[in-house]
Design a protein that fits this description.
It is built from eleven helices and two strands. The protein is an all-alpha fold and 294 residues long. The chain has one domain. A two-stranded antiparallel ribbon has the order 1-2. A hairpin with a 5-residue loop joins strand 1 (9-11) and strand 2. Its EC number is 2.3.1.-. Belongs to the ELO family.
């Protein structure tokens, strides 16, 4: 049973009210840490807004690493750090499970209790951007920096760094920072989807690293989840654009909408291309080859 709105109202440093989600549903409260509750998002938000150079510098350094890393490893033996890789993937999986547990319920709550317009347009700082959910949106934005370490493991293990891999890491880091610093009301929807997919994806990578992946855990389903996320991202950005276009009170930033649609649209194309190239074409070729030998 949900608690009353007044009992769960918090206020940020400018006096704007918001609802603390861990209080809205009292049965969830024991599963939240005290440091998560009633978090004021404005100090961190303003700090990030004043430092737009941070993601740009990170992307430049990342690009340098992508270019020179394989060259440095060219005449060196591949590193053997599978245990470290396994621990890293397990950490990211647990972090993503925690993030999904904090953001998915709030998204579902909003979808059931608010209009589509409010979900797309309402000021995020007075909704999901504050309190415990707001904390995890903040952590999500910053998690895109350590996720760049995924590429380091590819390089030191002398594996190819695909265009899809580095393009995804760069664009999602820039977009997430941009969306967060603009207090995008659709940010939590994107975050909830990404947390959910990453929780499963990194757990799969963990099992692969320790060679304990069960046969039923087909990597095809990971790519299918990623494609589903991209479809969801396109749908959310299109809905957001429709409300932004007709509603002058919609707080959604047009740059967030347009860049989000371009990003998710390109991801959808690239992941579908990857899916076909890895799972469909080889099976089709094997089937044709088998028919010719019969």
């Amino acid at each position: 049973m949900a608690a009353s709105a007044d009992a769960c109202t918090g206020y940020d440093s400018l006096g704007n009210p918001y609802q603390e989600f861990s209080c809205t549903y009292p049965f969830l409260a024991p599963f939240y840490f005290e440091f998560e509750k009633y978090r004021d998002p404005l100090p961190a938000l303003h700090w990030m807004q004043d430092r737009p150079f941070i993601p740009i510098v990170a992307v430049i350094l990342y690009g340098i690493g992508i270019y020179y890393g394989p060259k440095l490893m060219e005449n060196r033996e591949s590193w053997n750090c599978k245990k470290t890789l396994a621990a890293w993937n397990l950490f990211l999986s647990v972090f993503s499970f925690m993030g999904a547990a904090r953001t998915v319920p709030h998204v579902l709550h909003d979808m059931m209790n608010r209009s589509v317009r409010d979900c797309m347009c309402a000021d995020a700082r007075m909704g999901m951007g504050s309190g415990s959910t707001g904390l995890w949106l903040f952590l999500f934005a910053w998690s895109k920096f350590p996720e760049l370490i995924d590429t380091f493991f590819l390089i030191v293990h002398k594996k190819n760094v695909l265009f899809l891999h580095w393009y995804h890491h760069i664009t999602v880091l820039l977009y997430t920072w941009y969306g967060f610093t603009n207090a995008s009301p659709i940010g939590c929807h994107m975050t909830a989807m990404n947390f959910t997919v990453h929780a499963v994806m990194y757990f799969y990578y963990f099992l692969m690293a320790i060679k304990m992946k069960p046969k039923w855990f087909n990597p095809m389903w990971i790519t299918f989840m990623q494609i589903s996320q991209m479809i969801g991202g396109c749908i959310v950005t299109v809905l957001g654009y429709q409300y932004w276009k007709i509603d002058p009170d919609c707080t959604l930033n047009d740059g967030v909408v347009l860049s989000g649609f371009l990003m998710y649209g390109s991801y959808l194309y690239l992941f579908c291309q990857f899916f076909v190239g890895r799972f469909i074409t080889p099976r089709f070729s094997a089937s044709v080859k088998k028919q010719k030998t019969v």
